Amino acid sequence: MENNTIFVGSKPVMNYVLAVVTQFNEGSNSVLLRARGKAISRAVDAAEIVRNRFVPDSDVTDIQISTEEIENYNHEKTNVSIIEILIEKSE
Amino acid sequence: MENNTIFVGSKPVMNYVLAVVTQFNEGSNSVLLRARGKAISRAVDAAEIVRNRFVPDSDVTDIQISTEEIENYNHEKTNVSIIEILIEKSE
């Protein structure tokens, strides 16, 4: 499962869409999109674009949210939200 | 159910946290957070803050994502992602 995780960051959304499509084309049946903070909305966009436009036989089968404590450059601790979106291909 | 929907926009996250807490204090057993576009990450933050800090006997029980077509100020159609996060209080 870990191998199929794509970390969504600040690049254009189509980069992540392409990464998901590539995983499916290489034979994966599931891909996990993981994002934190402001990138969360980009992960949702990527999942929706994959499902609606590029891999019609795929669907979002699970979405989890959670919180992680991170340390900023001042060594202060701050909380950041995480989203994990599981996209699976129906056989 | 519709009455318990809170639309998350561009205000500070604590405004939405307070709105959820108020709903629960007024006797609701469930609150739906709904956001689109860039506000999606703020809705996730609000849900996490409610669950972890303010209403410990609540939990996120369902998350749905979808796409809506909207018309911008130039009358051009564009797609926007939506998230709906259901927070429920255990009895």
TrEMBL record, chains A, B:
UniProt entry keywords in alphabetical sequence: Chromosome, Cytoplasm, DNA condensation, DNA-binding
Ranges of residues in domain DNA/RNA-binding protein Alba-like: 4-67
Report any Pfam family annotated for this entry: Alba
**What GO MF terms are annotated?**
double-stranded DNA binding; RNA binding
Question: Among the record's GO biological process terms, what is one?
Answer: chromosome condensation
One GO cellular component assignment for this chain's record is: chromosome
| Gene3D superfamilies according to UniProt | Alba-like domain
InterPro entries listed in its UniProt record: Alba-like_dom_sf, DNA/RNA-bd_Alba, DNA/RNA-bd_Alba-like
Superkingdom classification of source? Archaea
- Provide the protein's localization: Cytoplasm; Chromosome
Q: Which family does the similarity line name?
A: Belongs to the histone-like Alba family.
Q: What does it do?
A: Binds double-stranded DNA tightly but without sequence specificity. Involved in DNA compaction.
Name of the protein this chain belongs to: DNA/RNA-binding protein Alba
